[in-house]
C-alpha cells in the first residue's frame, strides 16, 4: 500500500514538475505572445496548475485508496490525462515559438531592405542633388525647382522659317506640320500664300503628288498675281507629270504661259523641260 501511495505521489510530482516548467516557460514568453491563442494557452496552464494543487491537497485521500491495478484507477487516468494535456500544450508552445521566430526574421529582412533603399536614395540625392543634402541637414525647407518658362507661341513667320529649314533638310513631315500651323495663324494674303506653297512642297517631297497638285493650285488661287503664283502653276505641272497625267501637266503649262508670258528665268527653264517630257504641242 505504501509503495502504491509513493508511486502515485511520485507520478503526481512528475506531472507537477512538468506543469511548473511549462508554466515558467509560458510566463517568460508572456510578453512576446500577445495573441488570443497565447492568452488561451496561459489560461489552460493555470487551470492545470490548480488541478495539480487540488490533487496534492487531496493526498491523504489518495493514500487511502487502493493501488491502481494494471487497468489503471481513476487517479491514474487523471494523471495520464494531465500529462497528455501538458504534452499538447508544450507542442503548441513550440509551434507558436516557431511562428514567432519566423515573423521576427521577416521583420528583420524588411528592415534591412528598407535601410538599403534609404541608403540608395541618400546616395542618389548626394550625387545628383548638389547642395540639397546640406540644406536638409541645416533644417531648411527644400527649395522647389523653378517652373520651366513656357515657350512663346511661334508666329506665322517663325513657322514658315522653321518649315523651310526642315524642307531643305529633307524632313518633309515637319515641314508639312509647320506649314499647316502657319496657314492657320497667318494674317496677310501673302503669308497664307507662302504657307500654302510650303505645304504643297512638303507633300511633293513625300510623293503625295495628287495632294501636292491641289495644294499648289490653291496657292496660286490665293495670290494669282504674286511672283510666287508662276511657281505654283509650275508645281501643278510637275505633280501631274509625276502622276503620269501628261495632258493635265500640259494644261498647267499652258495656263502658266498665258498668265505669265515672261516668267522668271528659273521657271522658264523648268517649264521648257516639263513641256518636252509631257510632249506638249
Main features:
single chain; 281 residues; mainly alpha
Describe the structure.
The chain has 281 residues and is mostly helical. Helices cover 78% and strands 0% of the residues. The protein is built from twelve helices and no strands. It has helices at residues 2-28, 36-57, 59-64, 74-128, 132-137, 156-168, 172-185, 189-205, 209-222, 227-242, 246-259, 265-278. Residues 1-34, 60-71 and 128-140 have low confidence and may be disordered.
Shape call: rod-shaped
Helical element count? 12
Question: From the helix content, strand content and strand pairing, which structural class follows?
Answer: mainly alpha
Topology, number of strands:
0
Strand proportion: under 5%
Q: Distance N terminus to C terminus?
A: 147 Å
pLDDT averaged residue by residue: 74
Largest sheet: none
Please state the CA-atom Rg, rounded to the nearest Å: 51 Å
- State the share of residues found in helices, binned by percent: over 70%
Weakly predicted, low-confidence segments: 1-34, 60-71, 128-140
Q: Write down the secondary-structure element order.
A: HHHHHHHHHHHH
Record the SSE blueprint:
Blueprint: H1 2-28, H2 36-57, H3 59-64, H4 74-128, H5 132-137, H6 156-168, H7 172-185, H8 189-205, H9 209-222, H10 227-242, H11 246-259, H12 265-278
Helix pairs in contact: 1-2, 1-4, 2-4, 6-7, 6-8, 7-8, 8-9, 8-10, 9-10, 10-11, 10-12, 11-12
Amino acid at each position: 500500500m505504501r509503495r502504491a501511495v509513493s508511486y502515485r505521489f511520485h507520478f503526481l510530482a512528475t506531472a507537477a514538475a512538468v506543469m511548473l516548467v511549462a508554466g515558467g516557460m509560458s510566463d517568460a514568453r508572456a510578453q512576446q505572445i500577445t495573441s488570443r491563442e497565447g492568452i488561451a494557452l496561459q489560461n489552460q496552464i493555470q487551470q492545470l496548475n490548480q488541478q495539480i494543487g487540488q490533487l496534492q491537497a487531496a493526498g491523504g485521500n489518495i493514500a487511502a485508496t487502493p493501488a491502481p491495478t494494471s487497468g489503471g484507477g481513476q487517479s491514474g487516468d487523471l494523471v495520464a490525462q494531465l500529462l497528455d494535456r501538458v504534452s499538447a500544450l508544450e507542442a503548441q508552445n513550440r509551434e507558436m515559438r516557431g511562428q514567432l521566430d519566423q515573423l521576427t526574421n521577416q521583420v528583420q529582412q524588411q528592415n534591412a531592405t528598407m535601410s538599403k533603399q534609404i541608403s540608395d536614395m541618400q546616395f542618389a540625392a548626394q550625387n545628383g542633388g548638389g547642395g540639397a543634402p546640406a540644406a536638409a541637414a541645416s533644417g531648411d525647407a527644400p527649395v522647389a525647382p523653378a517652373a520651366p518658362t513656357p515657350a512663346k507661341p511661334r508666329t506665322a513667320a517663325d513657322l514658315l522659317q522653321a518649315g523651310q529649314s526642315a524642307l531643305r533638310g529633307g524632313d518633309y513631315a515637319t515641314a508639312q506640320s509647320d506649314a499647316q500651323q502657319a496657314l492657320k495663324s497667318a494674317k496677310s494674303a501673302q503669308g497664307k500664300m507662302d504657307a500654302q506653297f510650303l505645304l504643297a512642297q512638303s507633300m511633293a517631297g513625300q510623293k503625295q503628288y495628287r495632294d501636292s497638285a491641289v495644294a499648289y493650285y490653291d496657292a496660286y488661287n490665293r495670290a494669282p498675281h504674286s511672283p510666287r503664283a508662276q511657281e505654283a502653276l509650275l508645281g501643278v505641272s510637275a505633280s501631274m507629270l509625276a502622276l503620269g497625267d501628261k495632258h493635265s501637266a500640259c494644261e498647267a503649262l499652258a495656263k502658266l504661259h498665258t498668265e505669265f508670258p515672261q516668267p522668271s528665268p528659273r521657271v522658264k527653264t523648268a517649264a521648257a523641260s516639263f513641256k518636252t517630257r509631257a510632249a506638249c504641242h
